[in-house]
Design a protein that fits this description.
The chain is mainly beta. The chain is 8% helix and 54% strand. It has 4 helices and 36 strands. The strands form 8 sheets. Strands 3, 4, 5, 6, 7, 8, 9, 10 and 11 form a 9-stranded antiparallel beta sheet that branches. Strands 13-20-19-15-17 form a 5-stranded mixed beta sheet, with no helix packed on it. A 5-stranded mixed beta sheet has the order 22-29-28-24-26, with no helix packed on it. Helix 3 packs antiparallel against helix 4 (535-549).
Protein backbone atom coordinates (compact mmCIF):
# COMPACT_ATOMS: atom_id res chain seq x y z
CA UNK A 1 0.00 0.00 0.00
CA UNK A 2 1.42 3.37 -1.01
CA UNK A 3 1.23 6.53 1.14
CA UNK A 4 0.55 9.64 -0.85
CA UNK A 5 -0.09 13.35 -0.23
CA UNK A 6 -2.94 15.45 -1.53
CA UNK A 7 -2.03 18.90 -2.85
CA UNK A 8 -4.36 21.20 -4.73
CA UNK A 9 -6.17 24.54 -4.81
CA UNK A 10 -7.33 25.80 -1.40
CA UNK A 11 -9.69 28.49 -2.75
CA UNK A 12 -12.89 26.45 -2.44
CA UNK A 13 -11.86 25.34 0.95
CA UNK A 14 -11.02 28.85 2.19
CA UNK A 15 -14.46 30.07 1.17
CA UNK A 16 -15.97 27.49 3.44
CA UNK A 17 -13.42 27.96 6.16
CA UNK A 18 -14.33 31.64 6.42
CA UNK A 19 -17.68 30.49 7.68
CA UNK A 20 -16.37 28.11 10.35
CA UNK A 21 -14.36 28.35 13.53
CA UNK A 22 -10.67 29.40 13.43
CA UNK A 23 -9.62 26.06 14.85
CA UNK A 24 -11.09 24.32 11.83
CA UNK A 25 -9.39 26.84 9.56
CA UNK A 26 -5.99 25.96 11.07
CA UNK A 27 -6.66 22.32 10.32
CA UNK A 28 -7.61 23.09 6.74
CA UNK A 29 -4.46 24.93 5.76
CA UNK A 30 -2.09 22.20 7.04
CA UNK A 31 -1.10 19.63 4.43
CA UNK A 32 -2.24 16.17 5.63
CA UNK A 33 -0.69 12.79 5.00
CA UNK A 34 -3.21 10.36 3.65
CA UNK A 35 -2.61 7.24 5.70
CA UNK A 36 -3.45 3.57 5.49
CA UNK A 37 -7.12 2.72 5.90
CA UNK A 38 -8.24 1.46 9.28
CA UNK A 39 -10.23 -1.59 10.37
CA UNK A 40 -10.02 -3.32 7.06
CA UNK A 41 -11.52 -6.81 7.17
CA UNK A 42 -11.58 -9.09 4.10
CA UNK A 43 -14.97 -10.44 3.15
CA UNK A 44 -14.19 -12.91 0.37
CA UNK A 45 -11.72 -15.76 -0.05
CA UNK A 46 -10.87 -16.50 -3.66
CA UNK A 47 -9.61 -19.69 -5.25
CA UNK A 48 -6.89 -19.22 -7.84
CA UNK A 49 -7.55 -20.59 -11.31
CA UNK A 50 -5.52 -20.75 -14.49
CA UNK A 51 -5.74 -17.08 -15.47
CA UNK A 52 -3.36 -14.23 -16.03
CA UNK A 53 -3.93 -10.49 -15.74
CA UNK A 54 -5.19 -8.83 -18.92
CA UNK A 55 -6.04 -5.26 -19.91
CA UNK A 56 -7.93 -2.64 -17.92
CA UNK A 57 -11.46 -2.81 -19.34
CA UNK A 58 -13.16 -0.22 -17.12
CA UNK A 59 -13.48 2.04 -20.17
CA UNK A 60 -16.11 -0.18 -21.81
CA UNK A 61 -18.53 0.15 -18.91
CA UNK A 62 -21.57 2.38 -18.54
CA UNK A 63 -21.57 4.49 -15.35
CA UNK A 64 -24.44 5.40 -13.02
CA UNK A 65 -24.27 7.77 -10.01
CA UNK A 66 -26.32 8.28 -6.87
CA UNK A 67 -26.07 11.35 -4.59
CA UNK A 68 -23.05 12.84 -6.35
CA UNK A 69 -23.11 16.52 -7.40
CA UNK A 70 -23.11 16.20 -11.21
CA UNK A 71 -21.35 19.54 -11.56
CA UNK A 72 -18.27 18.27 -9.77
CA UNK A 73 -18.36 14.59 -10.66
CA UNK A 74 -17.37 12.38 -13.58
CA UNK A 75 -13.90 13.64 -14.46
CA UNK A 76 -11.53 11.40 -16.39
CA UNK A 77 -7.94 10.80 -15.41
CA UNK A 78 -5.50 12.07 -18.02
CA UNK A 79 -8.44 12.34 -20.44
CA UNK A 80 -8.60 8.52 -20.57
CA UNK A 81 -12.01 7.13 -19.71
CA UNK A 82 -10.68 3.65 -18.91
CA UNK A 83 -9.63 4.89 -15.48
CA UNK A 84 -12.22 6.84 -13.50
CA UNK A 85 -11.28 9.74 -11.29
CA UNK A 86 -14.59 10.62 -9.73
CA UNK A 87 -14.54 13.50 -7.32
CA UNK A 88 -16.90 16.21 -6.26
CA UNK A 89 -19.18 17.62 -3.67
CA UNK A 90 -21.70 15.07 -2.50
CA UNK A 91 -25.38 15.35 -1.81
CA UNK A 92 -26.64 14.12 1.56
CA UNK A 93 -26.94 10.33 1.78
CA UNK A 94 -24.80 7.41 0.58
CA UNK A 95 -22.79 8.01 -2.58
CA UNK A 96 -22.84 5.21 -5.16
CA UNK A 97 -21.07 4.83 -8.49
CA UNK A 98 -21.94 1.75 -10.56
CA UNK A 99 -19.93 0.60 -13.58
CA UNK A 100 -21.81 -1.91 -15.75
CA UNK A 101 -20.60 -4.23 -18.53
CA UNK A 102 -22.82 -5.17 -21.42
CA UNK A 103 -22.26 -8.87 -20.64
CA UNK A 104 -20.71 -10.88 -17.87
CA UNK A 105 -16.93 -10.69 -17.96
CA UNK A 106 -14.26 -12.82 -16.32
CA UNK A 107 -12.28 -10.46 -14.08
CA UNK A 108 -8.75 -11.03 -12.82
CA UNK A 109 -8.60 -8.10 -10.38
CA UNK A 110 -10.07 -4.71 -9.45
CA UNK A 111 -7.87 -1.84 -8.32
CA UNK A 112 -9.45 0.95 -6.31
CA UNK A 113 -7.89 4.07 -4.83
CA UNK A 114 -9.97 6.24 -2.48
CA UNK A 115 -9.48 9.56 -0.69
CA UNK A 116 -11.92 11.48 1.45
CA UNK A 117 -11.98 15.16 2.36
CA UNK A 118 -14.18 16.46 5.15
CA UNK A 119 -14.22 19.35 7.61
CA UNK A 120 -15.40 17.20 10.49
CA UNK A 121 -14.53 14.34 12.79
CA UNK A 122 -16.68 11.44 11.61
CA UNK A 123 -15.12 8.32 10.05
CA UNK A 124 -17.08 6.91 7.14
CA UNK A 125 -17.22 3.49 5.49
CA UNK A 126 -16.73 2.77 1.82
CA UNK A 127 -17.26 -0.54 0.06
CA UNK A 128 -16.21 -2.19 -3.18
CA UNK A 129 -18.93 -4.47 -4.49
CA UNK A 130 -19.35 -6.76 -7.50
CA UNK A 131 -22.49 -8.20 -9.03
CA UNK A 132 -22.40 -11.89 -9.92
CA UNK A 133 -25.07 -14.24 -11.18
CA UNK A 134 -26.17 -14.93 -7.61
CA UNK A 135 -26.31 -11.24 -6.61
CA UNK A 136 -24.22 -8.49 -5.05
CA UNK A 137 -21.24 -9.30 -2.85
CA UNK A 138 -18.87 -7.01 -0.97
CA UNK A 139 -15.26 -7.88 -1.78
CA UNK A 140 -13.50 -5.13 0.19
CA UNK A 141 -14.37 -2.45 2.75
CA UNK A 142 -12.55 0.30 4.64
CA UNK A 143 -13.25 2.77 7.42
CA UNK A 144 -11.89 6.13 6.23
CA UNK A 145 -11.33 9.18 8.41
CA UNK A 146 -11.21 12.84 7.31
CA UNK A 147 -8.39 13.46 4.87
CA UNK A 148 -7.49 9.76 4.85
CA UNK A 149 -7.25 7.38 1.94
CA UNK A 150 -5.97 4.00 0.69
CA UNK A 151 -5.35 2.01 -2.45
CA UNK A 152 -5.67 -1.73 -2.97
CA UNK A 153 -5.98 -4.37 -5.69
CA UNK A 154 -8.44 -7.19 -5.09
CA UNK A 155 -7.90 -10.43 -7.04
CA UNK A 156 -10.96 -12.25 -8.38
CA UNK A 157 -9.05 -14.80 -10.49
CA UNK A 158 -11.54 -15.28 -13.27
CA UNK A 159 -14.88 -14.82 -11.53
CA UNK A 160 -17.69 -13.68 -13.81
CA UNK A 161 -19.25 -10.30 -12.98
CA UNK A 162 -21.30 -7.71 -14.85
CA UNK A 163 -21.17 -4.75 -12.43
CA UNK A 164 -18.64 -3.06 -10.15
CA UNK A 165 -19.79 -0.59 -7.53
CA UNK A 166 -18.17 2.04 -5.33
CA UNK A 167 -20.36 2.62 -2.28
CA UNK A 168 -19.47 5.48 0.09
CA UNK A 169 -21.38 6.15 3.29
CA UNK A 170 -21.86 9.87 4.08
CA UNK A 171 -23.55 10.81 7.31
CA UNK A 172 -22.09 14.26 8.06
CA UNK A 173 -23.16 16.37 5.05
CA UNK A 174 -23.95 20.06 5.44
CA UNK A 175 -22.46 23.33 4.35
CA UNK A 176 -19.99 23.31 7.21
CA UNK A 177 -18.98 19.69 6.69
CA UNK A 178 -18.83 19.37 2.93
CA UNK A 179 -17.48 16.04 1.71
CA UNK A 180 -15.63 15.14 -1.42
CA UNK A 181 -15.02 11.44 -2.31
CA UNK A 182 -12.16 11.04 -4.76
CA UNK A 183 -11.66 7.53 -6.19
CA UNK A 184 -10.13 5.62 -9.06
CA UNK A 185 -11.33 2.22 -10.28
CA UNK A 186 -9.45 -0.03 -12.70
CA UNK A 187 -10.94 -3.36 -13.81
CA UNK A 188 -8.58 -5.94 -15.32
CA UNK A 189 -9.86 -8.80 -17.45
CA UNK A 190 -8.85 -12.41 -16.74
CA UNK A 191 -7.17 -14.20 -19.62
CA UNK A 192 -6.91 -17.99 -19.65
CA UNK A 193 -3.29 -18.91 -19.04
CA UNK A 194 -1.68 -20.78 -20.36
CA UNK A 195 -3.96 -20.85 -23.40
CA UNK A 196 -3.14 -24.57 -23.74
CA UNK A 197 -3.81 -27.02 -20.92
CA UNK A 198 -2.62 -30.65 -20.65
CA UNK A 199 -4.27 -33.23 -18.44
CA UNK A 200 -3.42 -36.91 -18.03
CA UNK A 201 -5.84 -39.52 -16.76
CA UNK A 202 -5.44 -41.51 -14.65
CA UNK A 203 -2.75 -39.71 -12.71
CA UNK A 204 -1.25 -42.97 -11.47
CA UNK A 205 -1.28 -46.64 -12.49
CA UNK A 206 0.63 -49.78 -11.65
CA UNK A 207 1.35 -53.02 -13.43
CA UNK A 208 3.58 -56.06 -13.50
CA UNK A 209 7.00 -56.07 -15.21
CA UNK A 210 6.50 -56.20 -18.98
CA UNK A 211 2.96 -54.84 -18.76
CA UNK A 212 1.80 -51.81 -20.80
CA UNK A 213 -0.02 -48.94 -19.08
CA UNK A 214 -2.34 -46.66 -21.08
CA UNK A 215 -3.09 -43.03 -20.15
CA UNK A 216 -5.44 -40.55 -21.83
CA UNK A 217 -3.59 -37.30 -22.59
CA UNK A 218 -6.02 -34.46 -23.28
CA UNK A 219 -4.93 -31.15 -24.86
CA UNK A 220 -7.28 -28.17 -24.32
CA UNK A 221 -7.00 -25.09 -26.53
CA UNK A 222 -8.15 -22.28 -24.21
CA UNK A 223 -7.06 -19.61 -26.66
CA UNK A 224 -9.08 -17.70 -29.21
CA UNK A 225 -7.58 -19.28 -32.34
CA UNK A 226 -7.09 -22.77 -33.68
CA UNK A 227 -3.61 -24.10 -33.04
CA UNK A 228 -1.35 -27.09 -33.65
CA UNK A 229 0.49 -28.50 -30.66
CA UNK A 230 3.63 -30.61 -30.64
CA UNK A 231 3.66 -33.21 -27.86
CA UNK A 232 6.88 -34.32 -26.21
CA UNK A 233 7.63 -36.89 -23.51
CA UNK A 234 10.09 -37.21 -20.67
CA UNK A 235 10.36 -39.46 -17.64
CA UNK A 236 12.51 -40.13 -14.60
CA UNK A 237 13.22 -43.85 -14.96
CA UNK A 238 13.94 -44.23 -18.68
CA UNK A 239 11.05 -46.55 -19.46
CA UNK A 240 9.64 -47.03 -22.95
CA UNK A 241 7.13 -44.25 -23.74
CA UNK A 242 4.94 -43.84 -26.81
CA UNK A 243 2.29 -41.34 -27.90
CA UNK A 244 -0.42 -42.24 -30.36
CA UNK A 245 -0.09 -38.71 -31.85
CA UNK A 246 2.87 -36.34 -31.62
CA UNK A 247 1.00 -33.38 -33.19
CA UNK A 248 -2.60 -32.41 -32.48
CA UNK A 249 -4.68 -29.77 -34.26
CA UNK A 250 -7.13 -28.31 -31.74
CA UNK A 251 -9.83 -25.70 -32.57
CA UNK A 252 -10.26 -22.75 -30.22
CA UNK A 253 -12.18 -23.69 -27.08
CA UNK A 254 -12.03 -27.41 -27.84
CA UNK A 255 -9.84 -30.36 -26.90
CA UNK A 256 -8.26 -33.46 -28.41
CA UNK A 257 -7.14 -36.66 -26.68
CA UNK A 258 -4.35 -39.05 -27.56
CA UNK A 259 -3.08 -42.18 -25.82
CA UNK A 260 0.17 -42.39 -23.90
CA UNK A 261 1.51 -45.93 -23.61
CA UNK A 262 4.10 -46.74 -20.92
CA UNK A 263 5.86 -50.12 -21.02
CA UNK A 264 7.23 -51.38 -17.72
CA UNK A 265 10.64 -53.06 -18.21
CA UNK A 266 10.79 -56.81 -17.67
CA UNK A 267 13.54 -56.40 -15.08
CA UNK A 268 11.91 -53.54 -13.16
CA UNK A 269 11.99 -53.92 -9.41
CA UNK A 270 8.60 -54.03 -7.64
CA UNK A 271 7.68 -50.66 -6.17
CA UNK A 272 9.74 -48.68 -8.72
CA UNK A 273 8.04 -45.48 -9.92
CA UNK A 274 8.47 -43.58 -13.17
CA UNK A 275 7.33 -39.95 -13.29
CA UNK A 276 6.21 -39.21 -16.86
CA UNK A 277 5.65 -35.72 -18.27
CA UNK A 278 3.66 -34.83 -21.39
CA UNK A 279 4.33 -31.33 -22.73
CA UNK A 280 2.23 -29.59 -25.39
CA UNK A 281 3.90 -26.68 -27.21
CA UNK A 282 2.15 -24.33 -29.63
CA UNK A 283 3.64 -24.54 -33.11
CA UNK A 284 2.49 -20.95 -33.64
CA UNK A 285 4.27 -19.59 -30.57
CA UNK A 286 6.68 -21.91 -28.80
CA UNK A 287 6.49 -19.71 -25.70
CA UNK A 288 3.02 -21.13 -25.16
CA UNK A 289 3.20 -24.56 -23.60
CA UNK A 290 1.83 -26.57 -20.75
CA UNK A 291 2.50 -29.98 -19.25
CA UNK A 292 1.07 -32.56 -16.92
CA UNK A 293 2.59 -35.55 -15.17
CA UNK A 294 1.52 -39.04 -14.30
CA UNK A 295 3.09 -41.95 -12.45
CA UNK A 296 3.75 -45.49 -13.61
CA UNK A 297 4.54 -47.95 -10.87
CA UNK A 298 5.73 -51.55 -10.79
CA UNK A 299 3.07 -53.40 -8.89
CA UNK A 300 4.11 -55.08 -5.68
CA UNK A 301 2.50 -58.52 -5.72
CA UNK A 302 2.40 -60.44 -2.47
CA UNK A 303 1.31 -64.06 -2.39
CA UNK A 304 1.69 -67.22 -0.36
CA UNK A 305 0.80 -70.90 -0.73
CA UNK A 306 0.55 -73.41 2.12
CA UNK A 307 0.77 -77.19 1.68
CA UNK A 308 0.52 -79.83 4.44
CA UNK A 309 1.86 -83.33 3.91
CA UNK A 310 0.53 -85.90 4.47
CA UNK A 311 -3.05 -84.78 4.35
CA UNK A 312 -4.08 -87.27 7.03
CA UNK A 313 -2.47 -89.59 9.55
CA UNK A 314 -3.54 -91.74 12.44
CA UNK A 315 -2.06 -93.02 15.65
CA UNK A 316 -2.96 -94.61 18.91
CA UNK A 317 -4.06 -92.63 21.96
CA UNK A 318 -1.01 -90.96 23.49
CA UNK A 319 0.90 -91.09 20.20
CA UNK A 320 2.50 -88.26 18.18
CA UNK A 321 1.86 -87.25 14.59
CA UNK A 322 4.19 -85.05 12.53
CA UNK A 323 3.22 -83.13 9.39
CA UNK A 324 5.47 -81.19 6.98
CA UNK A 325 4.22 -77.61 6.45
CA UNK A 326 5.59 -76.10 3.22
CA UNK A 327 5.12 -72.34 2.72
CA UNK A 328 5.86 -70.89 -0.73
CA UNK A 329 6.32 -67.19 -1.64
CA UNK A 330 4.23 -66.73 -4.80
CA UNK A 331 4.67 -62.92 -4.89
CA UNK A 332 7.32 -60.79 -6.54
CA UNK A 333 8.95 -59.41 -3.38
CA UNK A 334 10.60 -61.17 -0.42
CA UNK A 335 8.22 -61.50 2.48
CA UNK A 336 7.87 -62.61 6.08
CA UNK A 337 5.00 -64.91 6.95
CA UNK A 338 3.53 -65.58 10.37
CA UNK A 339 2.14 -69.09 10.94
CA UNK A 340 -0.80 -69.99 13.12
CA UNK A 341 -2.56 -73.31 13.73
CA UNK A 342 -6.01 -74.24 14.95
CA UNK A 343 -8.10 -77.38 15.29
CA UNK A 344 -11.61 -78.47 16.20
CA UNK A 345 -10.85 -81.07 18.88
CA UNK A 346 -8.57 -79.07 21.14
CA UNK A 347 -5.55 -81.35 20.91
CA UNK A 348 -2.04 -80.15 21.69
CA UNK A 349 -0.49 -78.61 18.54
CA UNK A 350 2.94 -77.07 18.05
CA UNK A 351 4.90 -75.59 15.15
CA UNK A 352 8.67 -75.71 15.04
CA UNK A 353 8.61 -72.20 13.47
CA UNK A 354 5.89 -69.57 13.60
CA UNK A 355 7.71 -67.00 11.40
CA UNK A 356 9.33 -67.72 8.04
CA UNK A 357 11.34 -65.33 5.85
CA UNK A 358 11.09 -66.51 2.24
CA UNK A 359 12.74 -65.03 -0.90
CA UNK A 360 10.81 -64.57 -4.12
CA UNK A 361 9.88 -67.87 -5.78
CA UNK A 362 11.19 -70.03 -2.96
CA UNK A 363 9.70 -72.02 -0.10
CA UNK A 364 10.51 -73.18 3.39
CA UNK A 365 9.29 -76.12 5.44
CA UNK A 366 8.56 -76.46 9.12
CA UNK A 367 7.01 -79.24 11.18
CA UNK A 368 3.59 -79.38 12.79
CA UNK A 369 3.52 -81.76 15.77
CA UNK A 370 0.25 -83.15 17.09
CA UNK A 371 -0.13 -85.02 20.36
CA UNK A 372 -3.01 -87.52 20.40
CA UNK A 373 -4.67 -87.43 23.83
CA UNK A 374 -4.21 -90.61 25.87
CA UNK A 375 -7.95 -90.76 26.52
CA UNK A 376 -8.99 -90.19 22.91
CA UNK A 377 -11.50 -92.70 21.64
CA UNK A 378 -10.60 -94.76 18.57
CA UNK A 379 -12.14 -93.24 15.45
CA UNK A 380 -11.96 -89.65 16.76
CA UNK A 381 -10.74 -87.16 14.14
CA UNK A 382 -9.16 -83.75 14.62
CA UNK A 383 -9.26 -81.29 11.72
CA UNK A 384 -6.19 -79.04 11.85
CA UNK A 385 -5.62 -75.83 9.85
CA UNK A 386 -2.34 -73.96 9.39
CA UNK A 387 -2.55 -70.32 8.20
CA UNK A 388 0.33 -68.29 6.75
CA UNK A 389 -0.13 -64.48 6.67
CA UNK A 390 2.10 -61.82 5.13
CA UNK A 391 3.56 -59.56 7.80
CA UNK A 392 3.62 -56.68 5.29
CA UNK A 393 -0.06 -57.05 4.29
CA UNK A 394 -2.37 -59.02 6.54
CA UNK A 395 -4.92 -59.36 3.74
CA UNK A 396 -2.51 -61.73 1.98
CA UNK A 397 -2.62 -65.27 3.31
CA UNK A 398 -3.28 -68.91 2.58
CA UNK A 399 -4.07 -72.04 4.54
CA UNK A 400 -4.19 -75.79 4.26
CA UNK A 401 -5.75 -78.48 6.43
CA UNK A 402 -4.99 -82.01 7.54
CA UNK A 403 -6.66 -84.70 9.59
CA UNK A 404 -5.33 -86.52 12.65
CA UNK A 405 -7.20 -89.71 13.55
CA UNK A 406 -7.23 -91.98 16.58
CA UNK A 407 -7.00 -95.64 15.64
CA UNK A 408 -7.52 -98.93 17.51
CA UNK A 409 -4.38 -101.06 17.68
CA UNK A 410 -6.23 -103.53 15.49
CA UNK A 411 -9.52 -104.08 13.73
CA UNK A 412 -11.11 -107.23 12.39
CA UNK A 413 -12.38 -110.61 13.63
CA UNK A 414 -10.87 -113.71 15.24
CA UNK A 415 -12.45 -117.09 15.92
CA UNK A 416 -10.83 -119.23 18.63
CA UNK A 417 -11.58 -122.96 18.74
CA UNK A 418 -10.21 -125.91 20.74
CA UNK A 419 -8.80 -128.32 18.16
CA UNK A 420 -7.74 -130.82 20.84
CA UNK A 421 -6.35 -130.57 24.33
CA UNK A 422 -2.92 -129.64 22.89
CA UNK A 423 -3.71 -127.16 20.11
CA UNK A 424 -6.10 -124.37 19.19
CA UNK A 425 -7.66 -123.37 15.89
CA UNK A 426 -7.45 -119.69 14.81
CA UNK A 427 -9.43 -118.07 12.01
CA UNK A 428 -8.11 -114.49 11.57
CA UNK A 429 -9.14 -111.49 9.46
CA UNK A 430 -7.22 -108.59 11.01
CA UNK A 431 -5.77 -105.15 10.22
CA UNK A 432 -2.87 -104.50 12.55
CA UNK A 433 -2.23 -100.79 13.10
CA UNK A 434 0.61 -100.98 15.56
CA UNK A 435 3.01 -103.44 17.16
CA UNK A 436 5.17 -105.98 15.40
CA UNK A 437 4.14 -109.47 16.58
CA UNK A 438 1.06 -111.64 16.95
CA UNK A 439 1.52 -114.08 19.83
CA UNK A 440 -0.64 -116.90 21.26
CA UNK A 441 0.02 -117.21 24.98
CA UNK A 442 -1.05 -120.28 26.96
CA UNK A 443 -1.98 -119.95 30.63
CA UNK A 444 -3.08 -122.27 33.42
CA UNK A 445 -6.43 -121.62 35.02
CA UNK A 446 -4.73 -119.52 37.67
CA UNK A 447 -3.33 -117.29 34.84
CA UNK A 448 0.18 -118.56 35.30
CA UNK A 449 1.93 -118.42 31.93
CA UNK A 450 2.79 -121.83 30.57
CA UNK A 451 4.23 -120.98 27.15
CA UNK A 452 3.80 -118.75 24.11
CA UNK A 453 3.94 -119.12 20.35
CA UNK A 454 4.78 -116.27 17.90
CA UNK A 455 2.53 -116.74 14.91
CA UNK A 456 3.14 -113.49 12.95
CA UNK A 457 5.93 -110.90 12.56
CA UNK A 458 4.84 -107.75 10.70
CA UNK A 459 5.33 -104.05 10.04
CA UNK A 460 2.19 -101.96 10.60
CA UNK A 461 -0.09 -101.21 9.04
CA UNK A 462 -0.71 -104.72 7.69
CA UNK A 463 -3.53 -107.15 7.06
CA UNK A 464 -3.46 -110.76 8.30
CA UNK A 465 -6.10 -113.08 6.89
CA UNK A 466 -5.53 -116.81 7.39
CA UNK A 467 -6.65 -119.91 9.29
CA UNK A 468 -4.19 -122.03 11.25
CA UNK A 469 -3.75 -124.49 14.10
CA UNK A 470 -1.49 -123.29 16.88
CA UNK A 471 -0.08 -126.13 19.00
CA UNK A 472 0.67 -125.70 22.67
CA UNK A 473 4.47 -125.45 22.89
CA UNK A 474 4.36 -128.05 25.71
CA UNK A 475 1.75 -130.22 24.04
CA UNK A 476 4.21 -132.78 22.63
CA UNK A 477 5.20 -135.82 24.80
CA UNK A 478 8.14 -135.14 27.05
CA UNK A 479 10.54 -138.10 27.01
CA UNK A 480 11.00 -140.50 28.57
CA UNK A 481 7.23 -140.39 29.20
CA UNK A 482 4.68 -140.57 26.43
CA UNK A 483 2.53 -137.89 27.94
CA UNK A 484 2.48 -134.15 26.89
CA UNK A 485 3.95 -131.59 29.28
CA UNK A 486 1.09 -129.09 28.98
CA UNK A 487 -2.57 -128.83 27.98
CA UNK A 488 -4.69 -125.97 26.68
CA UNK A 489 -6.46 -124.34 29.62
CA UNK A 490 -6.48 -120.64 28.71
CA UNK A 491 -5.20 -119.32 25.36
CA UNK A 492 -4.92 -115.63 24.39
CA UNK A 493 -4.08 -114.03 21.05
CA UNK A 494 -2.17 -110.79 21.83
CA UNK A 495 -0.56 -107.94 19.89
CA UNK A 496 2.93 -107.06 21.15
CA UNK A 497 6.00 -105.07 20.32
CA UNK A 498 9.26 -106.82 19.48
CA UNK A 499 9.36 -107.62 23.17
CA UNK A 500 6.53 -110.12 23.57
CA UNK A 501 6.22 -109.20 27.22
CA UNK A 502 4.99 -105.74 26.10
CA UNK A 503 1.39 -106.55 25.31
CA UNK A 504 -0.35 -103.75 23.36
CA UNK A 505 -3.74 -105.38 23.15
CA UNK A 506 -5.42 -108.71 23.76
CA UNK A 507 -7.28 -109.50 20.56
CA UNK A 508 -9.10 -112.69 21.59
CA UNK A 509 -8.99 -115.41 24.21
CA UNK A 510 -10.23 -118.95 24.81
CA UNK A 511 -10.91 -120.63 28.16
CA UNK A 512 -11.46 -124.42 28.12
CA UNK A 513 -14.58 -125.31 30.10
CA UNK A 514 -15.89 -128.73 31.26
CA UNK A 515 -18.31 -128.56 28.34
CA UNK A 516 -15.31 -128.29 25.96
CA UNK A 517 -13.64 -131.29 27.69
CA UNK A 518 -16.84 -133.35 27.46
CA UNK A 519 -17.19 -132.57 23.77
CA UNK A 520 -13.58 -133.49 23.14
CA UNK A 521 -14.03 -136.81 25.02
CA UNK A 522 -16.96 -137.80 22.82
CA UNK A 523 -15.03 -136.71 19.70
CA UNK A 524 -12.26 -139.17 20.73
CA UNK A 525 -14.78 -141.98 21.11
CA UNK A 526 -16.11 -141.16 17.64
CA UNK A 527 -12.61 -141.37 16.17
CA UNK A 528 -11.37 -144.41 18.15
CA UNK A 529 -12.27 -147.07 15.62
CA UNK A 530 -11.30 -144.93 12.63
CA UNK A 531 -7.76 -144.30 13.76
CA UNK A 532 -6.38 -147.30 15.62
CA UNK A 533 -2.88 -145.91 15.15
CA UNK A 534 -3.89 -142.96 17.41
CA UNK A 535 -5.02 -145.09 20.34
CA UNK A 536 -2.00 -144.25 22.50
CA UNK A 537 -2.47 -140.52 21.89
CA UNK A 538 -6.18 -140.84 22.52
CA UNK A 539 -5.52 -142.65 25.84
CA UNK A 540 -3.07 -139.91 26.92
CA UNK A 541 -5.51 -137.13 25.98
CA UNK A 542 -8.39 -138.87 27.82
CA UNK A 543 -6.18 -139.12 30.88
CA UNK A 544 -5.42 -135.36 30.68
CA UNK A 545 -9.12 -134.59 30.21
CA UNK A 546 -9.89 -136.46 33.42
CA UNK A 547 -7.04 -134.69 35.24
CA UNK A 548 -8.16 -131.24 33.99
CA UNK A 549 -11.87 -131.85 34.62
CA UNK A 550 -12.02 -130.73 38.19
CA UNK A 551 -9.92 -127.58 37.55
CA UNK A 552 -11.94 -126.48 34.52
CA UNK A 553 -14.85 -124.10 34.93
CA UNK A 554 -18.29 -125.63 34.32
Amino acid sequence: MRIWRFKGSLLPILIIVSMVAPAILLISISPRVIGVSRNHSPVWDFTAENYKKGNNIAGVTTSYYTNFNPDTHGNEKDNIRSTYLEGGWTWPGDQICTLEFENYERIYSIYWKVRRTLFGVIDEMCYLKVHKIDGWQTIDQHLVGPWEGFEKEIELNGQSIDKVQFYGVSRQIDLQHAQWWVYEIEIYEALPWPPVLVSISPSSQEGAPGEKLAYASTIVNAGENEDNYHLSLSDSAGWSLELENEVLEVPAGENQTTTLTVTIPENAEPGTEDNITVTATSQTDNAISNSDTCIGRVKVVRGVKVLISPSNQENLPGGMLNYAITVSNTGNVPDNYSLENSDNAGWVLSLDNDLLTIPVGENQTTTLRISVPVDAMPGTEDFITVIATSKADNTIGDNDSCIARVVSPWTGTVKFKLENLYKVRLEKDLQLNTGSKLVVKFYEYDNALQAESIIENFVPTTTVKENENVPHPLGAPVPPTKYPGGTVQIARLVLTTDNTEEVISTISSLSVHQSDLRKRFFDILGEWFKYPEQHDAFRAEVMDILLQWFSAPP
